[in-house]
Amino acid sequence: MAVYTDISEVELAEFLKDYDIGELLSYKGIAEGVENSNFLVHAASGAYILTLYEKRVNPNDLPFFLGLMQHLSDKGIRCPLPVKQRSGAMIGELAGRPGALVTFLEGMWMRRPTVEHCRELGAGLAAMHLAGADFPMRRRNGLTVDAWRPLWNRAAERADEVEPGLGAEVEADLADLEAHWPKGLPVGVIHADLFPDNVFFLGKRLSGLIDFYFACTDILAYDVATCLNAWCFEKDNSFNLTKAMALLNAYTAIRPLSSAEAEALPLLARGSALRFMLTRLYDWLNTPEGSLVVKKDPLEYLRKMRFHRSIKSADEYGLKL
Amino acid sequence: MAVYTDISEVELAEFLKDYDIGELLSYKGIAEGVENSNFLVHAASGAYILTLYEKRVNPNDLPFFLGLMQHLSDKGIRCPLPVKQRSGAMIGELAGRPGALVTFLEGMWMRRPTVEHCRELGAGLAAMHLAGADFPMRRRNGLTVDAWRPLWNRAAERADEVEPGLGAEVEADLADLEAHWPKGLPVGVIHADLFPDNVFFLGKRLSGLIDFYFACTDILAYDVATCLNAWCFEKDNSFNLTKAMALLNAYTAIRPLSSAEAEALPLLARGSALRFMLTRLYDWLNTPEGSLVVKKDPLEYLRKMRFHRSIKSADEYGLKL
């Protein structure tokens, strides 16, 4: 949940003067997204999302994120389409922050995804990877293996407050992942944060992908690994093999995984789990009481790290090559 | 800001089965309202607000609130219109809470209302009072003069923490208001919470009134007094006489105030300021750190109480009888 910045109707009207969307009818701060402030805007021409980029987003990255949404949308991937100002610009300023307007996507995210939703996700992810293949911009992943130790160094000292022994366990895993992180696997545009709240459905059909603000150029199979973590574990941290099979085999039906990618999958899944454990741990230790942000439990991802350590090969996830 | 209760697409779809609003397309928790959880719902037939009533709302009051909206809407007052279930019921249940669906009103609330907005408000308030005259249900005001002392008793001991001397000052004011609260003034349906965030505009025109969850049967002029407090003071607590003139004279052009009502206005305004000071004070002292609710400053209303104490008659507010 977030609306960090409120805006007045006067400043919004001023901002919208540069756009051809017709009369402004209403705007509501919405309780989605944790990094930015989002407003659902109704105008005479339709519904839009206005995003104000808060301090965690580097403004220099916005052309990549918005350009990617435009590119994917042009290729038939359903995602928010940036609305251009009359000048052609996609980024404006509002309340002292960079702001962008994108089309509103109908659809709902699944609080309790089913096997069918995981199958749709696998197919949608593969289609996104293919559509991104000729996107000309690049952005390095700021939260991949080389970023984990600096992050860990800022949390390690207090890790055992969260769970006794956490420090030593993470240290060993991190060293192992740094030593063995795969090289030479196919790279391309990845979403990097494709959790259920970023995937919309209408009925059983995937209706769109949103929130590309972690998107970057990185190992494609790493995106698959992140989805395994985010979609295929139940609330009790048990791994749902049926969901994983659905996700992986729908993916490979559209973009086959090479044997090298398949072989790397357990390590990538372990790394992805560590990445989310680390950012959650850091937020857990550093979010002040009284903040509007709901803190997510780092231990959920510790459990996932442990699960992936027990996996010897990707066929244990249900992958059929 | 509030979304206290999140709901899943599954429970929402189940809830909506009783309504004829067409396919559910999306729903977003919105950051408006402080008492309930509100969702902006898009369906094939249009946009709606779904409200889940949290613990501060007594479910027995819902037929009054929803019936009033229906009544006012039928009389041409623009306000949310409750959507009936196929059975005719206006109240359902969702996530273990009473829930209701109302039509979505386009429009924006004014973070910085102008004189023109105050004029529109005055006229809109008077029209609402007239339209409510034949509403058959009654509800007592749970936050009028007889409720203030019990509320004060739960905050008095710690009042001086907020401002030294506050205890004695409120005690004196409260005793005076209890002794002199007017009797025999015209009563009817009042909104009782018509702050700027409950009044929508499109351009300079009032486009609707929302949030009738404090509405009750009480002194009509008390509603006018509350609007004076909520709309005619600037951020620095100075009283804007031009705004008050616009508000009062637009009101009386549609519903004239009797001389008894005019005479009572300074006392009613002082009482209304005390009422909001008391609830804010109580919340200030009792809202836990870390709550998602933004606490409002009780001292803003202390300043207003002091201002009204200095007023001898309603013509000092700019009222022309």
UniProtKB/TrEMBL annotation, chains A, B:
Keyword Nucleotidyltransferase: no
EC numbers: 2.7.1.39
Reactions mediated catalytically: L-homoserine + ATP = O-phospho-L-homoserine + ADP + H(+)
Pathway field: Amino-acid biosynthesis; L-threonine biosynthesis; L-threonine from L-aspartate: step 4/5
InterPro entries according to UniProt: Aminoglycoside_PTrfase (IPR002575), Homoserine_kinase_II (IPR005280), Kinase-like_dom_sf (IPR011009), Pseudomonas-type_ThrB (IPR050249)
Membrane among keywords: no
Pfam families: APH
An annotated Gene Ontology molecular function: homoserine kinase activity
Family from the record: Belongs to the pseudomonas-type ThrB family.
Protein name: Homoserine kinase
Organism: Mesorhizobium denitrificans
Source species taxonomy: Bacteria, Pseudomonadati, Pseudomonadota, Alphaproteobacteria, Hyphomicrobiales
